[in-house]
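User: Please go through the entry that follows and flag anything odd:
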Amino acid sequence: MSTIKTNIQASRPKYLSPTRGCVQLWSQTMIPTTREAPGDAQTPSHIFLTRAGYIRRVGAGIYNYLPLAWRSLKKISAIVRDEMDQAGASEMLMPALMPVELYSGTKRDVDYGDLLFTLEDRHGRKAALGPTHEEVITDLMCSSLNSYKQFPLNLYQIQTKFRDEFRPRAGLLRCREFIMKDAYSFHLDLEGDAGLNTTYDKMYQAYTNIFTRCGLDFSAVEAEAGPIGGSASHEFMVNCESGEDTILVCPETGYAANVEKAEIGPRDWSFDVTSDVEITMHHTPGMPGIEGVADHLGVTAAGMLKSIVMRTTEDTPRWVVAVVRGDHEVNEAKVRDAVGTSVELAPEAEAQAAGFSIGYVSPRATETIESILVVDPDTLHDANWATGADEKDHHVTGFNWARDMSTSIAADKVKVADIRNAHAGDPSPRAKGVLLVERKGIEVGHIFKLGTKYSDAMGLNVLDKNQKKQSVIMGCYGIGVSRTLSACVEMSNDDNGIIWPASIAPYHAQIIVIKPKEEGVLEEANKLASELAEQGIDVLIDDRDERPGPKFKDADLVGLPVRFIISPKTIEANSVEFKARLDAGKAQMIDRNDAIQSALDSLATAQNRRIAD
């Protein structure tokens, strides 16, 4: 008998409990549903998670996770743990509070700026609440790793993180306190079974498994590393029209990247565009940005050149002037790639002292100030441009590359490269003749190849097989656990409330009891709940002595995948009313003997269906 039971359990879908499901009474838990959302709630997840009694605001960007939310968060965390463990990672726990001096080598306290929560203890020691834990884990490894035989190593935690968002919004999507899984891997090589690339690929697959098991419609996109740092990264984005992140996709090849990372395919350009229009100076005092200048000059932003002064971050910095069309934005990472070294926006005072008239810079400034000039191909299409005059409160019209930059062009001092943010309608970098299209998404995961950024900064090195000291190579892998909960609601809802996939719903099934005080009604609900639980189904029994209407509205709001209605009428007919949350129609009367199979079938549908509208 035990062997049979084990086989039955082994065949259960992963979204069901491997043993017996949980049964809970509504009257014995806390589900404070409301008819109105808070005044600051604008996104679907913020509205419905609040109205359905999942979360309650404590302060700006700080929330209580009530029982329903906590059950879902635990299910997400369990999926994360299962896939991370299978990928060879080991779980640990690091402190949320860390000494600020850990940042002394990496300077990430500067990179994070005001996002970093800092405090001072009674002894005057400064500390920070961890936004991520690269410094803490690297410091630990400095005293723990001493031999090449210890590699590879991959450690992870699920922990509360903190970021001092200036304007927290959208409920759990942008909080000051949130739950996150972060993992860190350590290697001595890039390639091979013990190399970073192998672990990175394992994490990529683990993340794909995690978000698939969570029932999300998602895309993995190429991304910039941002303040974490590193050489390569991918974001995992929930596809959702209400998302705040823009994804650019090649519809033919499937190439996808966020705006900061997206490449642009080849574009025609030429310096040999001549003009007989004379260059003319214009007085432009106090003009409010490029649109105001364009309007004053009688041109469009697309007819202007925008010249941004940057500098390299080398020991001996060099000036860089990046030129894009007036309606485009310079992409710092692309400028870095074009120049071959890291760059940053030039401090205005230092740039002014070097001779740049900030706000009025033109490409011609590089002919008198030693600089690297990098221009985007879109700035080389037209014969005449409006641009800065390299003089305060002045611009020029009629600028022509072939005539006005002939010396630099002849000396091969004008580098042409893709240095702007991509847009929908730009050429695909992967398919000739195909244009990039735009999608919206919500970031729920991010993986990075950190390289030796942190190990070099903090002195993490070991002796390799040849007894030579070598910097440890690192990877970093994060998942927003509480953000995943919220992103799922953004992706999957209707006018009436949440629509959960089976795997992360707080309960799989809800039993609504009509007239619970009448003899035998609650007993029948408990019996059905017990039968469902035997199949690994978690059940919430709405045993409140309320009218049916409010109970049905609450059921839609809470959004559990399947619903049963038990009443004196259904008991008399040896039947039960059944409704899947995905079904917009009314509940159907089914034979009592078909209840379990109906639930199992509907849960499978709820788990496999992706809802992006």
Remarks:
- Confidence is low (pLDDT under 50) at residues 1-10.
